[in-house]
Amino acid sequence: MTGHSHDNIDWDEHLQRLRDGDELNAPEIAELVAKLLRPTDRNVIEIGAGAGGTAAAFAAELADSGGALTVVDTAPQLLAAAEARVKQVSDRVEVHAVQADAADDSLAEAIAKAGAPAQADVVFAAFVVHHLPDQLAGVRRLANLVRPGGRLAIVEFGLETKVLPPDVGLAEPGLEARLTAARQDWFRQMRAEMTGTVRMPMGWGKALSEAGLADVRSWSYLVDRPAPVSGVALQAVLRRLQFLRRDAENRVGPADLAALDELLDESGEHYAGTRDDVYYLTANTVHLGTRPAS
Ligand SMILES: C[S@@+](CC[C@H](N)C(=O)[O-])C[C@H]1O[C@@H](n2cnc3c(N)ncnc32)[C@H](O)[C@@H]1O
Questions:
Q1: Biggest alpha carbon distance in the chain?
Q2: What pTM did the predictor assign?
Q3: Measuring from atom 10 of ligand 1, which residue has the nearest CA?
Q4: In a domain, 272, yes or no
Q5: Ranges for the Methyltransferase type domain (predicted)?
Q6: Total tally of structural domains belonging to the chain
Q7: Where residue 179 sits, what CATH number does that domain have?
């Protein structure tokens, strides 16, 4: 069984970051899951479940009725963490953890072989399809895991995350916009370097329609933690700046790199962790489609 993804990212190394993200996003995720699950839904498959925060929210929502929840991931430690997280929530929800590759046509077979229901009322995938070499084929594969009448929900980036004021007092104003452009270039390169990469020249909603889903609609939700931030929101700000630092190397000028280093220097006077004007604001978009009943 494969233990790696296609994007040259060791996802197991991201466990703590994903756990922190789950904590930060918990209120919005709980709201989204409550909105997605219909009263008769009993069976959910989550692809690329990360640290298991969303799966746990599904399990909490299914706890009264009972049901089955299948988490699928290529990263073994993340999969184990997600399984453990979900099992803490309710013993009325049957949990299946399947190490499988969403880019592989044997995905459905791997799920069935693990003894999990082969199709679900809801198939959910957040921020994972863009890590597959052929995203449209991935959407089709996920749509095939939906039972007739059931729904596929994909969450992808809505707007780029913002954490800095327009002028941080270092380098030229507009630092974050330049860093964000560098990150978008990193993303382009990440996709371009995947073996077998295929462009998807259409929006996510259209991709769901192309995959045979009906009643496709999209909406966005904000994760809004205004300044001043502390605790998990401040940690998210610092992680975002660390991400931007990694992606900025060789992509922005020396003055911008130096400014970012100052913002990340815990002992310096400009450390973002002690500023009272940083904030965390992002918009995620949900794309939902229904598999026709026949
Ligand atoms: C950006 S994380 C998102 C995690 C979680 N959905 C969330 O929103 O926090 C991407 C997740 O997809 C998983 N993943 C990446 N490539 C995959 C693949 N080809 N098949 C299955 N899972 C994959 C990673 O291991 C990780 O759990």
A1: 64
A2: 0.96
A3: 128
A4: yes
A5: 45-152
A6: 1
A7: 3.40.50.150
